[in-house]
Each structure stands twice: as C-alpha cells, then as structure tokens.
Specification:
The complex is a heterodimer of chains A (251) and B (646). Chain A is an alpha+beta fold and 251 residues long. Chain A has helices at residues 36-49, 121-128, 150-160, 167-171, 178-189, 198-211, 222-226, 234-250, and strands spanning 3-12, 21-31, 72-73, 76-77, 99-103, 112-114, 117-118. A five-stranded mixed beta sheet of chain A has the order 2-1-5-3-4. In chain A, strands 6-7 form a two-stranded antiparallel ribbon. In chain A, a hairpin with a 2-residue loop joins β6 (112-114) and β7. In chain A, α2 (121-128) runs antiparallel to α6 (198-211), α5 (178-189) crosses α8 (234-250) and α6 packs across α8 (234-250). Chain A is elongated. With 646 residues, chain B is of the alpha+beta class. Among the domains of chain B are: 276-409, Flavocytochrome C3, Chain A, domain 1 (Alpha-Beta Complex), CATH 3.90.700; 481-612, Up-down Bundle (Methane Monooxygenase Hydroxylase, Chain G, domain 1), CATH 1.20.58. Chain B has helices at residues 3-8, 24-31, 37-40, 52-64, 102-112, 119-139, 171-188, 254-261, 325-329, 339-351, 368-374, 376-394, 449-471, 482-501, 507-522, 528-548, 560-584, 608-611; strands spanning 44-48, 67-71, 89-90, 164-165, 192-195, 198-206, 209-217, 223-227, 230-233, 266-267, 272-278, 301-305, 322-323, 363-366, 403-412, 415-416, 429-431, 613-618, 627-632. Chain B is 37% helix and 14% strand. The chains are: A alpha+beta (251), B alpha+beta (646). At the A-B interface, α1, α2 and α3 of A face α4, α6, α7, α12 and α13 of B. The structure holds flavin-adenine dinucleotide and FE2/S2 (inorganic) cluster. The site of flavin-adenine dinucleotide has 45 residues of chain B, from α4, α7, β6, α8 and β15. Residues 59-62, 64-69, 85, 87 of chain A line the site of FE2/S2 (inorganic) cluster.
Chain lengths: 251, 646
C-alpha cells in the first residue's frame, strides 16, 4: 500500500451569485488505492472537524453510472484518465507532491450552485423537448413483434450509454451540448420504434439546446475525449444530417 | 416468541382478493371502481422518488389524467439509484422455449424468498412481468438481441431457465432512462410538475389520511408544504444503514422512516440482502462498495484454496488444490445458488481462514475456464464493462487473474407494510418499489427488483390508486392546516438543533460507527446476544450524535453536510427497530440467518409453525419499544418446503 501527499488548488464559491476564488489545501497520506472522491472525503472530514465548510462536490453512485460527479482536474473534465468518471479515478493516477487544480464544469448554461457543483437542469429540458418515444403505458405490442437487427440494437445501446454528466459541455470551447443531444437522437432513431417521431425530435431538441444558451459545434472533438462513456462524435455527424433533412422537409 | 403471544397480537388484513391464484388480479381489476376520466384531473397525486417505481408511476398516472407532482432529492430524475442496476430484469416470456411460464416465475420467486412472501402478490408480479418487457421495448430500451433480431436472455442466480432480459451490464440504466423519458414526455406535456433537489422531510396526515408532504429545497434550504389527495412513496431501500453498501451515497431511509413515525407500519426491517459478488473492502477511508453483477456467476467459478494459509498466486494453485465450494456443496445449482447461500458460504470459508487477498476477506471468481471454452471476445461481449470497472478500481486484470469478491449489503427486502393494493395502513399512503416490503419475502432473487419496481409503477398503481380515490371522501384542505404548520415547525427545529450542536465528530464518523455495529451484529449472521447488545448500543450512539456532531454551514443554502446529518439522524433511530425485528424473528430464513436456528450441516433452519408471517412494527416513540403486528402468510398453492439447491 502506497501513501502520497498532494496539493489541491480548489475553486470555492459560496453560491451562484457570489464571487469565486481558488484556495489551497493539502491532502496528506492518501492511500493510492483510494478513489479521487475518497481523497476529497478525507480533506473534507478535516475541514469539518475544524468547523470550516467542506468543499461541495456532486456525487452519488460512485461507480461511474449515475452521471452526478464531475469536475475539471488540471484542465481536463473528469481528470487525466480516458473513459472514466471522476468517481472512478483513483489516486494511483497521481504522484507524491503533485499539484491538482480542481474547478467546476464551466458553461453559461450550467450555472454554479456551490464550489464544484453546477446546475445541469438545462440538459433535462433538452430531453423534455423530444428525447423520447411517445408510447403510453399499456399500449405496447409484444416485445418480439418487431425484430431489430442486432447491428442497429447495438448502435442504439452504444449511443444510449450517455450518463448526462455534462463533461462534453465543459470540454467544448463553445460549451455545446451536441454530443449529449446527438447520442439521444441516435439512440432513438437507430430503432424502428423511434422512427415515427424522428424528424420532429431533432428539430425540437436542437431548438431547445440553442434556447438554453449552449453553443454550436465547430468540430473540435474535445467532447469525445472528455466523455467518460466513449460516445463517438460520429453521432454529431448523424445528427447534423438528420437535422438538415428534417429542416428541409418541414418547410 | 411463543404461539400464545402470537395469537394475542393484532393481525393485519392484506386485502388479498378471493378466487383462484391465477384469477385474483384479473378479477380484482374488474371489481375495482374506476375514476371517471373527467374527474381524474381534479385529483392531485404526490410521487416521491423517480427511480423505476416513481418515474414509471408518475408517467403512467399523469397519462391517465391525474395531476402529478413528483419529487426527488437528485438534481435530475435520471440519477435515481435504479440507474446502477447491472444484471437484468426477469420476465416469464419463455422466448427461449426452455420451460418457463408465469407459474414457474411465481414458484421460483416464492421459493427464492424462502416462503416469506405473499403468494397473491408474487403471482401478480409474474403475470405483469411480460407486459413490462413490451413496454420497455416500445420506449426504445436497447435490450441485448440475437443475430435474428429477437431479444436475448441470460440465466440468473436461483433459476434454471433463461428469463433475464439485459442491456450489457447496464440494464438498470437503460430501464431507468426509458422510464425517465416517459416522465420527461409528461413534464413537457404539462402533466407532471417536477421538483428536483427537494427532499421529503415529513408526511402530513389529516383526518387519518395521507394528505401531503413537507420538503426541503436542497439548493435554498426552503421548507415548504405540498397538499395532495394521495401520496406515493417510491424512495428506494435503506441499505446505507450499514454505512458501507452497494447503494448510492444518497440512498436513505428518511422518507419511509418519517412515514413510520407518523403511523405507517414498517415490515420485516431485518430482511437485508447481502450480495455475494462485490469488490472487497480495501481501506478505512472507503466510502462505498461496488457490486460486480451476479450474472458473472454464469461464467465465473467461485473458489478458495483447500489449504488454510495457502498464499500462492492463484495461477500457481493447481485445480486439485482448489475448493470450488459452491459446485461441491450444491451440485445442481453450483455457482448459481441464490444470493443468501452464496454469501454465507463465502463467509464460512473466510471464517475457516481460507480467504484470499491482503485482508483474507475475499474469495476468487475465476473466468479462466470460460475464457478457454468461449474465447476472450465472447466474455468481453458479455461482461466487458464490468471487467473494466473491476480493473479501474482494483488495478488487476480479470481476463488474466481471477477477480476477488466478498459479500456486501445490497438490497433491503423489508420496507413499509402495504396491502395487496400497495397501500400502507395509512389511507392514501401508497408505497412502491424497494421502499415497500411486498414481493421478495426474506430473500430477493436476482433481476426481480427491477421487475417489481416497474410492475408497481406501470401496471399496479394505475388501478389501485383509482379504486382508492373512487371510494374515498376527501375534505378540501389548505396549507394553513395545523398539521402542515406543525410538521414544518418540527422540521425547522430539527435542523436548527443540528446546526447548533457544533460538536467534535463528523457525521461520517457516527455513520461509520453505526454501520460497523450493524454489520457485526445484524449482518450476514445474527444471534440473540449480539442483537441485544446492538439494541443497547444504538441509543448511546444516537445520544452522542445529538450531543457531539459537527454540522457546518447554515440552513439557507446548499449544504451537503446538513443533508447527510439529517439522513444519518434517521438511520440512528431506524437501526434499533431493525435489530428488534431480527431479535424477535427466532428462525433463519433467507437473508436473515440466526445462529441459534440452523441444521446440523449449518444450513438455515426455518420455523414455519411460528414464523410463517410478516412482522409489521408500529412506532411508539423514539426510546420506546415499537409494537408488533402480525400478518399471517397463507400458502395455498406452494407448500413451504426446505429450500434445497443441492
Ligand atoms: C449496484 C446495484 C445493482 C443492482 N442490480 C440489479 C439487477 O441487476 N436487477 C434487479 O432486478 N435489481 C437490481 N438492483 C436492485 C434495484 O436496482 C433496486 O432495488 C431498484 O432499482 C430500486 O428502485 P426504486 O424505484 O424503488 O428506488 P430508487 O431507484 O432507489 O429511487 C429512489 C428515488 O427516491 C428519491 N428519494 C429517496 N428519498 C427521498 C426523499 N426523502 N425525498 C425526495 N426524494 C427521495 C430519490 O431521489 C430517487 O429518485 C441493484 C441494486 C444495486 C445497488
Ligand atoms: S458519482 Fe455516479 S457517475 Fe460518478
């Protein structure tokens, strides 16, 4: 078992309208098998014991699936390792004496709640605009009535893995939510069940994204690098094609 | 407890409909009153929780026309803990033509639950299971498929047929995203009002009926009341009473416990499921445990060295010096025995000193033989993401060396008592999903919680809620009602008290202390002495918490320490009831193993004469013993037998 000490430079901001600032802490004698969030727990325990307010950070499942956690670590959303959420990052990825700069995901559409916690409700509103198949409970045919080619089902699954963490937004120079949105559009339009609404879905979701203040896509591909689930930018290309077709047809 | 005591106790009416088992639900649906479509929109229904149970119920009830107001403490409904379920969901589709049927799923679930669940509920669940899969596929849930385009199945612990539908190791995620999308559709239609980051802090009862809740806005600290004609709790399980569990960090007992303090009975709280395949504990900073889906037991073989103290690397231990103890003891189910057996046997081999890894509290789960038989690609296709997750946590490659696993708290079969209609003993308070106690008896089979959550939310509550509302007289109420005002005041006071203590210990220190005690005394194996000690110790920890906890910050902003303190304060009350339940149930059944009730071979020994029943506890004040009510369980179709997996 190895122990390390690292220096943390953390963004502290008391509330949405308060001024933020960086503050330095030391995480001492941290077991390298501990997760990054467990390291923060240790720092926070120390802060609370001294009567200071702990560093606020969002988290829940701590196994990479709920999409709650996330922060920018040394300039990279979810930290240095590819295809991992912050909660899955372990201290063995750092060395004794390292300095770690920790900031919230920053974007106009994701206002800061406190410290490293941001408000991602805009992503829900994009889904509300059309990220579903309109099927009432009880009205479904037998599940095997419509065979779905395995290739399509697999593509739908790949795209459906998005955890809604907003790392793609944080990594994008334009703060675009295109990767997240295109993954939802591709998931649904890869399946026969998603066809009837596919044109309207794209138009409505894109229009909501713009309304929320997310930027557009200029093919920087930073989103794919940051995505903990490895969602491919090919879905953005698919979305663009679908959007054009839908826009032409709806006119 | 003697027979004599039992007969003195008040018995509970489960309202199981008359008729043959397979006709009960159909007949009951026909007999229940309906609410006229035009009247539905006059009723306001509160749903607390947006996991599989809450999201599906919210979407379905709002489609029917009810005004639905839905609450969750998460920042978006899609993050409910259901998202983490890995392995799959059962349904009696018999697409594999391997002999499955509704009756077989019913039978397996009753047997798996060690004959401590209601026959009628479980049969209904099995009937509905087939509709769930249809609904999910229509929503676009990308289940695994075969090359012909039809749905694929796998087998799961405790079953000899392949009836489990799955989406790689992310079945819960995909099902929840399906239910979430249905919910978002209804929010968009203006039919559901969604309150995220709102924690339910109390239940409000007026004239004996559930009429609303008090919430705390987690971002602003605002305490507010909400009125309703019925309240649905879909708030998940309480496994985090053990501190370490596979549950998400935020999972808690607060909503259920507050309802209990307002009069709702808590049923079988001691029934906890300890899941056999989790990543072992590695240090005292550890904040949670990670499950490795039990589907891994389809292709992984569980073993420990035959010799005590054999420290060789697993690859150097030849086959004849390995003990594949599940295959040896249970030849017909082998590695696929139900969870309680798999967990307990892992504990036994570790207690014998044959555990592996640095802490010696682990056993191997080995894929060597399946990789040789099926190829690495086939194993990767089935479990790729689980293997990656294992490697990222442990830094060891399961394609090359066996995984190390150990049991961990995973699911709670106990929960608020409900009748066949999912209504608690408080009129108008319904409980769905893991938060109720209804369908899994003393042990839940794999892939059946997702099934139950969605059955409750999509297909049961839509009928039974209507029947309640069509039959009840409700007075009009307002937020000025004394019951709302006093509940709000109680919440305020509790918060102010917590913030004013400013003691020396953190909330986590108390939580950890409670968790260790519970794991030790009310965990995989329990005895009278240990439980009595826990019942003595818990009030001491609680007292110390209220004198010495440090909660920083204030109430009028985002304050995670306060959130946690409020939840742990409830665990500290609830834990005692859990231990009392375990103490009173002087038999071993399912996940509840009493050392004083075992066969000469060390297997669990049930006591069907005295304990074929449900214990439902009534709150009598924090430092008082709760009162026990009994629901007798009747087995008319399946004869309780010794559960044999040999
Ligand atoms: C790691 C893991 C893997 C699993 N794998 C499987 C599997 O393969 N198959 C299977 O069948 N089952 C599995 N289970 C079990 C299953 O996932 C759960 O039992 C089930 O998803 C619970 O769903 P639910 O809707 O009842 O509650 P949850 O999904 O836990 O949702 C609870 C909801 O209530 C809200 N809430 C709670 N308290 C409050 C409050 N006080 N105020 C406001 N909101 C509140 C939360 O915000 C959340 O929205 C697994 C469980 C775990 C932990
Ligand atoms: S906490 Fe759930 S993904 Fe990190």
């Amino acid at each position: 078992m190895k122990k390390i000490t690292v220096k943390l430079v953390v963004w502290r901001q008391n509330g949405p309208d308060e001024k933020g600032f960086f503050k330095t802490y030391f995480a001492e004698n941290i077991d390298t098998d501990a997760s990054f969030l467990e390291m923060l727990d240790v720092v926070n325990e120390g802060l609370v014991k001294n009567g200071s307010e702990p560093i606020a950070f969002a988290h829940d499942c701590r196994e990479g699936i709920c999409g709650t956690c996330g922060a920018v670590v040394n300039g990279e959303a979810h930290g240095p390792r590819e295809k991992l959420t912050l909660c899955q990052l372990h201290m063995r990825s750092f060395s004794n004496g390292d300095t770690i700069v920790l900031e919230p995901f920053r974007a106009r559409a994701l206002p800061i709640v406190k410290d490293l916690v941001v408000d991602r409700s805009a992503l829900d509103r994009i889904v509300q605009a059309g990220g579903y198949i309109s099927v009432r409970t009880g009205s479904a045919p037998d599940a095997n009535a419509i065979p779905v080619p395995k290739k399509d089902a697999d593509q739908a699954f790949d795209a459906a893995q998005c955890i809604g963490c907003a790392a793609c937004v944080a990594a994008c120079p334009n703060a675009s939510a295109m990767l997240m949105m295109s993954a939802k559009v591709s998931h649904l339009s890869s399946l026969p069940q998603g066809q009837p609404e596919s044109k309207q879905r794209v138009l409505d979701m894109v229009s909501q994204m713009v309304k929320e203040g997310f930027g557009g896509c200029s093919n920087e591909y930073q989103c794919e690098v940051a995505c903990p689930k490895g969602i491919s930018v090919k879905y953005i290309a698919q979305l663009n094609r679908q959007y054009l077709l839908s826009a032409i047809k709806s006119e | 407890m003697s027979q004599h005591d039992v007969s003195k106790r008040k018995t509970l009416d489960s309202k199981i409909p008359e008729g043959a088992l397979s006709e009960k639900w159909t007949q009951h649906k026909f007999n229940m009153k309906l609410v006229n479509p035009a009247n539905k929109r006059k009723y306001k229904v509160i749903v607390v929780g947006t996991g599989l149970a809450g999201a599906s119920a919210s979407a379905t009830l709002s489609e029917l026309g009810y005004q639905v107001h839905t609450f969750c403490f998460h920042d978006t409904p899609r993050r409910a803990h259901s998202i983490a379920a890995q392995g799959g969901i059962n349904a009696a589709k018999n697409y594999q033509n391997d002999g499955d049927s509704i009756y077989r799923l019913f039978y397996d679930t009753i047997k798996g639950g060690d004959f401590r669940a209601r026959e009628a509920n479980v049969h209904r669940l099995a009937e509905i299971s087939v509709n769930i899969i249809d609904q999910c596929v229509a929503q676009g849930v990308p289940f695994a498929r075969e090359y012909g385009g039809l749905l694929d199945n796998r087998s799961f612990g405790g079953a000899q047929v392949s009836r489990t539908f799955y989406a790689k190791g992310q079945t819960g995620q995909q099902l929840l995203l399906g239910a979430y999308s249905a919910l978002m559709k209804q929010v968009n239609a203006g039919a559901v009002t969604m309150y995220t980051e709102h924690e339910m802090m109390d239940l409000v009862i007026i004239d004996g009926k559930a009429r609303g809740i008090v919430t705390r806005n987690l971002k602003t600290g605002e305490i507010a009341s909400h009125t309703a004609d019925a309240v649905l709790l879909c708030t998940g399980g309480y496994g985090n009473v053990f501190y370490l569990s596979t549950n998400a960090m935020g999972s808690n007992v607060t909503a259920a416990w507050k309802a209990h303090k307002r009069g709702a009975y808590f049923a079988n709280p001691c029934y906890t499921q300890i899941h056999p395949t989790c990543i072992p504990v590695h240090g005292d900073y550890q904040s949670k445990l990670t499950l490795m889906s039990e589907s891994l037991r389809n292709d992984g073989r569980v073993w420990v060295p035959k010799k005590v103290g054999d420290d060789r690397h697993p690859s150097e231990i030849p086959d004849d010096e390995r003990d594949y103890y599940l295959e040896r003891k249970y030849p017909s189910f082998g590695n696929l025995v139900p969870r309680d057996l798999a967990s307990r046997n892992a504990k036994y081999v570790c207690d014998e000193g044959r555990g592996v890894g640095p802490t010696k509290l682990a056993v191997y789960l080995d894929f060597r033989d399946s990789i040789n038989r099926l190829g690495k690609d086939a194993i990767e296709a089935r479990y790729g993401n689980l293997f990656d997750m294992y490697q990222s946590i442990t830094d060891s490659n399961p394609y090359e060396e066996p995984m190390m696993i150990y049991p961990a708290v995973h699911y709670t079969m106990g929960g608020l008592w409900v009748d066949y209609n999912l209504m608690s003993n408080i009129e108008g308070l319904f409980v769905l999903g893991e938060a109720n106690f209804s369908d899994h008896g003393a042990n839940r089979l794999g892939a059946s919680a997702l099934m139950q959550g969605l059955a409750d939310g999509y297909f049961v509550i839509s009928y039974t809620l209507g029947n309640y509302l069509a039959n009840v007289d409700l007075n009009s109420i307002s937020l000025e009602n004394e019951s709302f005002l006093s509940a709000e005041k109680d919440v305020q006071e509790r918060i102010e008290r917590l913030l004013s203590i400013r003691g020396t210990k953190t909330v986590d220190e108390f939580h950890r202390e409670l968790g260790l005690l519970m794991w030790d005394k009310c965990g995989m194996s329990r005895n009278e002495e240990g439980l009595k000690e826990a019942i003595r110790r818990i009030p001491e920890i609680r007292k110390s918490f209220w004198n010495d906890v440090m909660v920083t910050g204030s109430n009028n902003s985002f304050n995670q320490t306060l959130e946690k303190a409020l939840r742990v304060a409830d665990f500290l009350e609830f834990a005692e009831t859990m231990c009392r339940d375990a103490l009173e149930r002087k038999e071993s059944c399912g996940g509840h193993f009493r050392e004083d009730s075992q066969t000469p071979e060390g297997e669990a020994l049930r006591n069907d004469t005295e304990f074929t029943n449900v214990f439902a506890w009534e709150f009598k004040g924090i430092d008082n013993k709760p009162e026990l009510h009994i629901e007798e369980l009747e087995f008319e179709n399946v004869q309780p037998s010794v559960r044999s997996y040999k």
